[in-house]
Amino acid sequence: MSDDEPTYVTLEEHPSGLVTWRQRKKQATREAIADAAWRLALKVGPDNVRVDDIAAAAGVSPRTFNNYFSSREEAICAQRLRWAEKLTSALRNRPADEPLDQALGAAILEVRGRNDADKAMIRLVAATPAMRAEYLRHSVATEFTLAEIIAERTGCDSLAARVVGGAYATAARVAGEYWLRDDGDVPFTDFLRAALERAAPAARALEASLSAPHHPFREGHQC
């Protein structure tokens, strides 16, 4: 074999490395499709975007598009709402002894705080009923993501984790809605901080209840 010939690695030789490479390739393809979908939606409006156009802009086939997304709305929303997927690592990187409300607020501001897209164009996308439904679906997914981390950090039961996670997911969504309605120059982060402050009492109350003698929200507690 010459030095110019490629060396092929089998799954049996390096299984973890090969799987990781495949996962990275799939993620890169998904991101390319999502990027293309968002750009097209901003350019021509979401109602005028076709799956074939998204696939062509991303350099993939329509069949490949359907392997990653079930609809154009899902693809259009995916890139702007990927912040929900980043929350897990952001929250797990927060100090373990940090108060829950501070950890949640800091992580959401870190991941969600930047919003440099054109407000008028986002309004156009958000005005589409199908897109609003997709935003709501992602908000619920964010609630579950937050609830999982809250339960890990505190040891609380799933009910309490869902309630607090829902409060913070709703706060982030509502902040976006108010920012889009505002005709002034108030930064999105100002709306986000204000909304997170409204959700903070739920996190504080949860931690306080877990410190109480009968901690009703501790995992495994029988009410």
Automatic annotation (TrEMBL):
Keywords: DNA-binding, Transcription, Transcription regulation. Residues 50-69 bind DNA. The keyword DNA-binding applies. Residues 27-87 form the HTH tetR-type domain. The lineage of its organism: Bacteria, Bacillati, Actinomycetota, Actinomycetes, Cryptosporangiales. This is HTH tetR-type domain-containing protein. InterPro entries: Homeodomain-like_sf, HTH-type_TetR-like_transc_reg, HTH_TetR, MftR_C. Transmembrane segments: none annotated. The keyword Transcription regulation applies.
